């Protein structure tokens, strides 16, 4: 009997599919993108190494960890960084003015300007720290599920989190916007000053992310709410621990001038679409695999 080939998990499939999507997009608009050749190599490499990891991850625990956590994190970071090279060439007209107008129509003013009334250095520190937890929330959830041996829950969570990231990236391509800290700088009368840590964190994030057109939708909101949903389902004690930081994070997106209020609403919708569409796909794939193996119904998600 021949050895059974390793199978692609939904997270693996999504990583490969989105890398190939960006590969095709870059090839299609090759003449518009100054570094298209480098990006083609980058996206092809991401898809290739994801495929290689599927075959070699079972050899030792480090390769398994690489496939489960290290490579997904690297993929998210690398793809996000590459968007700075393709969003503007593909869609050169920033739409901040549309988002600003929507905020004004909804609130009769500008939310980031409104928050100036409540600014305090200590509050700015607290909210800037809360905003920064976004970079750790998915990893914390993944590590907790891995350590507890919740393998199926981990794979489901990995798939939904990757899906949420990549859907937000599609939003950046379709609706390029810099965000209020750049587009509304002339309307802000007060500097966003912290007490101890806000300014160093802001400088570090600016250095890490650069100037990206990544305001709409609010990926911070979408990812944070998706992680909160998953922790409620699979690690209720972690949910209780994350609830307040996530709520503060969402508030911080506007207070700290990273996002318009409409971006946050879109981020909430992003989380809903991620959970709904991801759940439908995951259940369909799971049922198909169970039918092919002729085994009793798998655990529902």
Automatic annotation (TrEMBL):
One Pfam family, short name: PAP2_3
Task: Give the UniProt entry's GO cellular component terms.
Answer: membrane
- Compartments (UniProt record): Membrane
Q: What is its main location?
A: membrane
Which spans are transmembrane here? 12-30, 36-57, 69-87, 126-145, 157-175, 215-232, 239-258, 264-284
Residue limits of the Phosphatidic acid phosphatase type 2/haloperoxidase domain? 157-279
Keywords, A to Z? Membrane, Transmembrane, Transmembrane helix
InterPro entries attached to this UniProt entry:
Aur1/Ipt1 (IPR026841), IPC_Synthase-Related (IPR052185), PAP2/HPO (IPR000326), PAP2/HPO_sf (IPR036938)
What's the protein's topology in the membrane?
Answer: Multi-pass membrane protein
What is this protein's name?
Answer: Phosphatase PAP2 family protein
Q: Which organism is it from?
A: Candidatus Nitrobium versatile
């Amino acid at each position: 009997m021949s050895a059974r080939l390793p199978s692609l998990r939904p997270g693996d499939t999504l990583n490969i599919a989105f890398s190939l999507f960006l590969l095709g997009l870059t090839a299609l608009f090759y003449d518009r993108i100054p570094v298209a050749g480098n990006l083609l190599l980058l996206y092809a490499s991401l898809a290739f190494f994801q495929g290689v990891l599927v075959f070699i991850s079972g050899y030792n625990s480090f390769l398994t960890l690489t496939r489960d956590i290290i490579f997904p994190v690297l993929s998210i970071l690398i793809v996000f960084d590459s968007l700075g090279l393709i969003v503007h060439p593909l869609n050169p007209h920033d739409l901040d003015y549309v988002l600003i107008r929507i905020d004004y129509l909804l609130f009769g003013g500008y939310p980031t300007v409104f928050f100036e009334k409540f600014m305090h250095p200590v509050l700015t520190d607290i909210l800037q720290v809360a905003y920064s937890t976004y970079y750790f929330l998915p990893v914390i959830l993944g590590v907790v599920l891995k350590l507890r041996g919740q393998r199926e829950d981990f794979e489901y969570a990995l798939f939904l989190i990757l899906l949420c990231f990549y859907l937000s990236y599609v939003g950046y391509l379709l609706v390029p916007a810099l965000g209020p800290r750049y587009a509304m700088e002339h309307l802000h009368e007060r500097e966003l000053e912290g007490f101890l840590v806000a300014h160093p964190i802001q400088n570090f994030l600016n250095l890490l992310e650069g100037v990206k057109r990544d305001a709409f939708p609010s990926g911070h909101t979408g990812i944070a709410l998706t992680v909160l949903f998953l922790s409620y389902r699979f690690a209720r004690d972690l949910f209780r621990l994350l609830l307040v930081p996530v709520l503060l994070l969402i508030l911080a997106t506007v207070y700290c001038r990273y996002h318009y209020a409409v971006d946050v609403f879109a981020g909430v919708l992003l989380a809903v679409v991620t959970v709904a569409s991801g759940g439908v796909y995951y259940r369909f794939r799971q049922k198909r695999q169970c039918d092919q193996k002729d085994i009793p119904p798998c655990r529902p998600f």
